[in-house]
Amino acid sequence: MIINCLLAGVGGQGTVLASKLIAQTALQQGLQVRTSETIGMSQRGGCVASHVRLGDKVYSPLIPLAGADLVIGFEPAEALRYLPYLKPDGVMIVSTTAIKPVSDSLAKTDYRGEDMLEALRAHVQRLVVLDGNAIITACGSPKVLNTALLGAAAEAGVLGFGPAALEETLRAMLPAKYLTMNLNALHVGALAYREGEH
Amino acid sequence: MSDKKQVRKLLLGNEAFARGAYEAGVTVASAYPGTPSTEIPEALAQYKGELYCEWAPNEKVAMEVAIGASMSGARALATMKHVGLNVAADPLFTAAYIGVNGGLVLVVADDPGMYSSQNEQDTRMMARAAHVPVLEPADSQEAKDYVIKAYEISEEYDTPVIVRSTTRLSHSQGLVNIGERITPPAKTYEKNIAKNVMVPANAQKRHPFVVAREERLTADASAMADLNRIELRDRSIGIITSGIPYQYVREACPDASVLKLGLVNPLPRRLIEEFAAEVDELYVFEELEPLMEEQVRAWGIACKGKELFPLVGEYSANLLRKVLYNETVEARTVPEIPGRPPVLCPGCPHRSVFSVMKKLKLHAAGDIGCYTLGASPPLGVIETTVCMGASIGTLHGMEKAHGKDYIKNWVAVIGDSTFLHSGINSLMNMVYNGGTGTVVIMDNSITAMTGHQHNPATGKTLQGDPAPTVSLKKLCEAVGVRHVTEMYAFDLKDLEALLKQEVARDEVSVIITQSPCALLKENPPIRNQYKVDAEICRACGLCLKPGCPALTKDANGKTKINDTLCNGCGLCFRTCPFGAIKMVDSVIDQI
């Protein structure tokens, strides 16, 4: 069996690190792992997609269209952009906190995350909307939103492991000074999943 | 049998290439950064003490360093992206004649789909022109294994060998069995002028050797079972493929028969003929150029290839299923989504310089680096971009076509690393041939676009040692530029006056704008926070014009600063004519 998880966000949001944490956790669980990232110019504020594929016979590093069991949207527009990758019965977790493209603040157009979320609600049956701002407040920093979203993803039960396994990975991989904040974020995320809009 | 447990690690393709070089006993590696190849030398740097690796100022130098190391008997590596191979082509084509002493391998990363490149050229074509063998791995494990194999072939056949990667391989992770570092057979330098001095009389004798070498490798290739293998399954469809496209084939057509090639130049003719005879319908599935397909057709073997699969862009499993089985995926269509083009970062010193150029309505001949983004809205200052180092030459060409007055509202824009890569040659040319252009070197103290690599002007080497620092100012003066001015990149008023003065001058001049990359983690600039006083802000939008991602408008059209994104450069503070943006007495936490 193959589990496909796609993480979609904006450069700087920590999608690549999040995908590494998933991959490492899966390895610890004895699963085979493949990941692939589009990182070209993303450091300059472009979109980033990380493909994580877990299972015995994974060939392509990329998830095929309509092949993702789980899409984690770090940002509403990015979640929508990668919707074609979601399986018809796949789960999508999305953070409500919108990041405006710079081109938008210059043009007269007004990008609203809520419009994207509306489109997602219309198209995705198994949608979980998480209040990104509340998560950031509870975590005390926007920099661990990625870990919180991982906590939510693990809680969703699609990945084949839960938050406890991710916690082990965080403890093994992160330097001590970042650990407390990330462990807290993991639990904030898991809680947000249980209380989020399903 | 070893009682040690096999260590397996999840490695990026690029990390696996580096591991392969390490295990193969490489002792010298040289490279110039270029996405998607940059992580290879960065991963090699960890083996400090066991091997030497360096950033060279360009790919030609990197190649020559590797050639010299090989001549002296060491196993040597050069890495680069596909367009970097053009820069290194001159030494490569002749190194193909000279051959090797210690094994000589290049890892070259192509970029199908052009995620971060100016063209989509195919390294296999370059290798074919140079008569150099090419290995193409399909996952991280093979990335490591094929580098080791490349050194064996290099020494066995007396030839440089290219290991070709693509973005998808370089930037995907897979499990790799970690092995031990070997000590290759000891080799010493041997004086051999007939082999190592490529003057016509010697080269005329080496060229037939190159032809014979390729024939021998072609004859041997069909028996190289560790590189080329036939996987017979359902025989109605047979697919010849290599590299990452092999993975798409296995994903999309798990039952199809496959000839998986690891050696893609020269091609194993006998094996291909054998495979073609086994299957009903033969396809060639290769990204970019029809290199394998044309060869297969030339041997009189019927196949299908580029009439079905595109010459451009990255392939996928979906593409293959669509072409072979006419299968369209029922993927949900998406409503219109705002685009998210890459932009200069908040706090980027380039934005400041471009904002002055835009105000002066200057045109800029551009170059390769973050500052190429100065072509994007709202800046739109960069009007040409060709290749590394091209800005100064193209501006000079415009002047020579139309006279010096034609370029009085033009500048050439180039970064510190790109200037040292190849811009310096064009500056010499401009001075030598009586040009009058104005060159702006945007010095942000790092090779930024590829992710902060050191260069000869940054004072540090790839393996972390302190290094002498090239003075860009003295370098420009040394080639004969009489007017070289260094200026802080955020000094808007003085920069404006200086630009006006220098473009008007009937002589070559260089302006070096200085301020470190806003993302620099080593010695970051100390920066203050800013806030908008909404009482004073007149909602004129002037501060928004340079396009800083940290600035937005509130409901009343007044400017708002996003504290999370702001890097505290103060450009908006300096731009506001009404003093509505105030410096806050707190320093931004850079961590």
What does this molecule look like?
- The complex is a heterodimer of chains A (198) and B (591).
- With 198 residues, chain A is of the alpha/beta class.
- A 6-stranded mixed sheet of chain A has the order 2-3-1-4-5-6, sandwiched between helices.
- The relative contact order of chain A is 0.17.
- The longest helix of chain A is centred in the last third of the chain and has 20 residues, at 176-195.
- The mean pLDDT of chain A is 90.
- Helices cover 44% and strands 23% of the residues of chain A.
- In chain A, a hairpin with an 8-residue loop joins strand 2 and strand 3 (47-55).
- By secondary structure, chain B is of the alpha/beta class.
- Chain B folds into 4 domains: 7-221, 3-Layer(aba) Sandwich (Rossmann fold); 229-325, Rossmann fold; 349-514, 3-Layer(aba) Sandwich (Rossmann fold); 528-590, Alpha-Beta Plaits, CATH 3.30.70.
- Chain B contains 20 helices and 23 strands.
- In chain B, the strands form 6 sheets. Chain B has a 7-stranded mixed sheet. A 6-stranded parallel sheet of chain B has the order 15-14-16-17-19-18, sandwiched between helices.
- Chains A and B meet through helix 1, strand 2, helix 2, helix 3 and helix 4 of A and helix 8, strand 8, helix 11 and strand 21 of B.
